[in-house]
């Protein structure tokens, strides 16, 4: 089964690892996990800041993980359907903070929202670091 998920995946943390591991283990674990990471430009458009690690570094980091089979750059929310079709997705997995926002893709593949890891987010990590400095 091909599972596609999306995110910025900046400052890799346990929440990222947990969702990628859950993707790999869905339906008895015989899955191909494909990750669309937000390009630097797209990240800036979404968050008004660039990721700490550039897109090439984040691609390399994600490709090194045993739970990830493929990585590609996501350049726009508007291209999600194109990406899902291009990668022949059987399942789109997103974090529960996106609940309901991608249901329109149920006509292409199954959409699943997985619970986020409590008390961890890249935004919180960055805020903590900035407060220390």
Description:
There is one protein chain. The protein has 133 residues and is α/β, with parallel strands linked by helices. Helices cover 35% and strands 21% of the residues. Strands 3-2-1-4-5 form a 5-stranded parallel β-sheet, with helices on both faces. Strand 1, helix 1 (14-25) and strand 2 form a beta-alpha-beta unit. The longest helix has 12 residues, at 14-25. The radius of gyration is 14 Å and the shape is globular. The chain starts with a strand and ends with a helix. The model has no long low-confidence stretch (mean pLDDT 92).
Number of strands: 5
Return Rg in Å.
Answer: 14 Å
Please work out how many helical segments DSSP would assign: 5
Give the DSSP E fraction (strand runs of 2 or more residues): 15-25%
Mean pLDDT across the residues is: 92
| Proportion of helical residues | 25-40%
Per the principal axes of the C-alpha atoms, what is the gross shape?
A: globular
Which structural class should the secondary elements be placed in? alpha/beta
Termini gap: 45 Å
How are helices and strands ordered from N to C?
Answer: EHEHHEHEEH
**Biggest sheet architecture:** 5 strands, parallel
The largest sheet has its strands arranged as 3-2-1-4-5
């Amino acid at each position: 089964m091909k599972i596609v998920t999306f995110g910025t995946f900046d400052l890799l943390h346990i929440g990222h690892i947990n969702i990628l591991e859950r993707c790999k283990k869905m339906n008895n674990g015989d899955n191909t996990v494909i990750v669309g990471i937000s390009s630097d430009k797209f990240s800036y458009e979404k968050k008004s800041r660039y990721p700490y690690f550039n897109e090439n570094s984040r691609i390399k980091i994600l490709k090194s993980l045993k739970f990830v089979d493929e990585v590609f750059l996501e350049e726009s929310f508007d291209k999600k359907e194109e990406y899902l079709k291009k990668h022949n997705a059987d399942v789109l997995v997103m974090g529960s903070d996106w609940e309901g926002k991608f249901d329109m893709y149920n006509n292409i593949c199954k959409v699943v929202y997985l619970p986020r890891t409590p008390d961890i987010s890249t935004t919180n990590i960055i805020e903590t670091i900035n407060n220390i400095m």
